[in-house]
Amino acid sequence: MIQTANRIASVEEYYFSRKLAEVRGLDTPELRVINLGIGSPDQAPSSNAIEALITSAKNPANHGYQNYKGIPALRKGIADLYKNIYDTQLDPESMILPLMGSKEGIMHICMAFVNEGEEVLIPNPGYPTYSSVANLVGAKLRTYDLKEELNWGVDIEALKKSDLSKVKLMWVNFPHMPTGRTASRAELKELVDLARKHQFLIVNDNPYSMILNDVPMSILSIEGAEDIALELNSLSKSHNMAGWRIGWIAGKKEYIDAVLKVKSNMDSGMFLGLQHAAVEALKNGKEWFTSLNKMYANRKKAAKQLLDLLGCSYAENQSGLFVWAKAPDTIKDIEKWIDEILYGTKVFITPGFIFGEAGRRYIRISLCCTVEMLQEALDRIQKFTASKQLNQSKTVTA
Predict the structure, then answer these.
(1) H helix intervals, 137-184
(2) Aminotransferase class I/classII large domain location, by residue (predicted)?
(3) For the chain, how long is the longest CA-to-CA vector?
């Protein structure tokens, strides 16, 4: 047996990779599993994007290798988005690098900037891939807590008092996944000032900014951010294009060039048809986002009804594609509880512990299911709970 590399010894298979295989195994034609776990939009992209893909794919000349930096029209479309949505000016030639989904950018950035043994600041709770990639590049993981008493905000004063001399990179994610917390300009300015003072790179992972968020913001709009910040973004959530794998990294030319060194050795450019489709998707106007957010607002109401049934508590002003909720104190083992619901009702809910120790008492519900599916999930859990209570009552009586 050939031994695997040491670098993967501390990396687990992604939770959803394992768990969703288990969930799919419960699926039957008689009773389908309702997956409230993963944030994969269930609606189609705009028709103009789909038509652009079809037209481009029919052109025999469009199937060869492409420029590693993407076509100029795509970079300009991204720059226009930043100007219109975030009031941020980006040079499309030097400050934007298209990616095959922003997730690959997490690896590219770490490989480009983080040396073995250097510290990477990771939010707790937070996206598990930040930790996995830091492990893969041999970095030293260092979590910073997002505190419930600060409405899941960063305890910046605690960071200021800590030793940041070995920090090379800090991951931030606003609007935050899984808590739905947004950051104010003042909070982002404090983080930027901290990174400037201690000379580390701060990266904002920003795919949720246009979902149920009245004030979309880019960290690159903050004064002084250009010298120490990068931003990841994508069309996955905001334009219903998760499976299309269209994202980008934005920031200072020198930083983009460093990431390009890594990326250009990993792939041979994005399919031109996808780029043409992305150009069209980026033209979606205010009405697209108004309609999208109306749909998610209706789903959120249904999700909250389900959480109320489960006895959970939650903040009202969450942005993004999820509702983050605290389990009732009567539940001692959240993972066991979630599995009990899954196997008793075929409804899958994400346990919060996968996002870090700070999420251990929490669960997360995705809004990527129709109102009807959320209502069906509520009905199943309601019946399951009633049946369980009846059985417990009979046991006590006996």
Answers:
(1) 156-161
(2) 33-381
(3) 77
The token duo for 156 is 């910046």
Distance CA 89, CA 30 (A): 53
Tokens describing residue 278: 């992305």
Q: Set out the domains of the chain in order of their start, with CATH numbers.
A: 11-40+286-397 (3.90.1150.10), 59-281 (3.40.640.10)
Check: pTM over 0.90? Answer yes or no: yes
φ, ψ of residue 248 to 5 degrees: the values are: -165, 165
Six-digit token string for 130 = 């930040």
Strands annotated E in 276-373: 313-314, 322-326, 347-348, 350-351, 362-366
Q: State the pLDDT at residue 387.
A: 81
What is the per-residue pLDDT across 351-362, written as a single tens digit (0 to 9) for each?
999 999 999 999
Task: State the pLDDT at residue 391.
Answer: 67
Tell whether the model's pLDDT for residue 392 goes beyond 80: no
Residue 223: burial class (beta carbons within 10 Å; 0-12, 13-18, 19+): exposed
For the stretch 185-208, pLDDT in tens is: 999 999 999 999 999 999 999 999
Crossing angle between the packed helical segments 334-345 and 371-397, to the nearest 10 degrees:
100
CB 123 within 8 Å of CB 131: no
